[in-house]
Amino acid sequence: MMSGTERRRQLGSNDAPVEEEIEESFNRIVEEGAQRLARTWTTVLVTGAFGGMEVGLGVMAYLAVLHETDNHLLAGLAFGIGFIALLLAKSELFTEGFLVPIAAVAAKEASLSQLAKLWGGTLLMNLVGGWAFMWLVVQAFPQWKPELETGARHFVDAGFNWQSVCLAVLGGSTITLMTRMQQGTDSDLAKMVVSVACGFLLAGLQLFHAILDSLLIFGAIHAGVQVNYLDWLGWFGYTLLFNVLGGLLLVTSLRLLRNKELILERRENAPEDPDAAR
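^ that's the sequence the OP posted. Answer follows.
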């Protein structure tokens, strides 16, 4: 009796154990992930700094709309500008680095040490770039202090509880799913629509996101709100952890499981030492 894989190959237009669109998307993800992980330290740090500043554009747009309308949902739509900037400028945001680089590591097209370099360098420089950008925003728009205070308090006063954990898990899974959807199309317009949609979910629903919301807290600190870096660090620690878990468990692991046959095929042709090969 013909197996499911054999039947799929007979009906499909490719020889892979999955549909052609999924195979093409998976190959695109692995190849992009390998390229990103092959970056030098300098490139990782500079790209991460740009990522922090460019997502800051979304925060600036969010604050502008929130100031005028006092409506988080409308402001969330405006925040999508930041994700469009990241997309078109080819910058790096830490929470976008779950699915694509990990797929390359799983396929043995890159190494764990390269992944650690990308994650560590990007996270640090996202925060540095975002901190500097928010200083400029606060100097340019001091009238946004009330919005910054309300936003910062929403996060640092939340406390570590099940609601906060779930908000952080949803924040990590949402942005990882955004990456997956963008990898599933060649249309820049479709990618921008995804950016706006996920920006709406993250900012409009005030999900917990380690980088995006850190910029709001940094802005509040710059504006003289009674919030300090210890308050931020207490919130940031658990938010970062559950962003990672949300992105890895709810999106990345399931996509890799679905594509396990493709991963095994890529491993057969992968270099023995990805670090040396690049």
